[in-house]
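In the laboratory, one determines a bound structure by crystallizing the protein with its ligand and collecting diffraction data. In a computational setting the workflow is compressed into a single prediction: the sequence and the ligand go in, and a structural description comes out. We illustrate the idea with iron/sulfur cluster.
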Amino acid sequence: MESRYSKILEKNQREIVLLKSFPCSYGKCSFCNYINDNSLNEDEMNTLNFDILSKVTGEFSSLEVINSGSVFELPAATLKQIVAIVKEKNIKIIYFEIYYGYHKRLIEIISLFPNTEVRFRTGIETFDNDFRKNIYNKNFSLDEAALLNLSQNIYSTCLLICVQGQTREMIEEDIRIGLKYFKSITINIFINNETKIKRDEELFNWFIKKYSHLKNHPKIELLIDNKDLGVFKQ
Ligand code: SF4
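The predicted complex, in structure-token form:
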């Protein structure tokens, strides 16, 4: 089952597309099963991606492109088509995902969209460096200076919560720090998948009871289900 085009109609209205791309250059995050959507068949990817992009209307002047990896892993023809659609549909804001390792290359993407604000999202997942490295298997640490630098260039970060090994205090601290440094945060509640990471149901019940109202926070996108944005592959 899959859905690759959707509209976000509540706050921060936008169209969103889930495109196919080459394999994520990192590909080692312990919780990640999105990379199952990656491909090596460039022609097939372009055909599918062009079809999905043809649905974009520009009605909100805002478009989010996700691709189970980073924008740098999209086929060149697909990226070119995105540039054309942004121009044709007068898109004023475009969102892309990037892995942390690409954060010094953002200008390569920004320069493709001279009349559009490019907003990057990156999955920091947690501000606890040990947990990020040892549990989530992300290969970077962030000190205060790195965080400040990153927050100058990255619009939004994703947090992954309610997994075994986390505590209530860690989750609250992650949200506090995310809101302090970034213009927006996406809180993803972990859904069990085939990876070794497991959801902590007690944490989940606590979080939903105490923090469901964050759905209405202007700077927060709270995703309780991984289909909440309307685009998914299962
Ligand atoms: S960087 Fe993103 S797409 Fe790549 S493995 Fe990690 S979570 Fe998955």
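The two ends are 5 Å apart (CA to CA). Keep in mind that any predicted model is a hypothesis to be tested, not a measurement.
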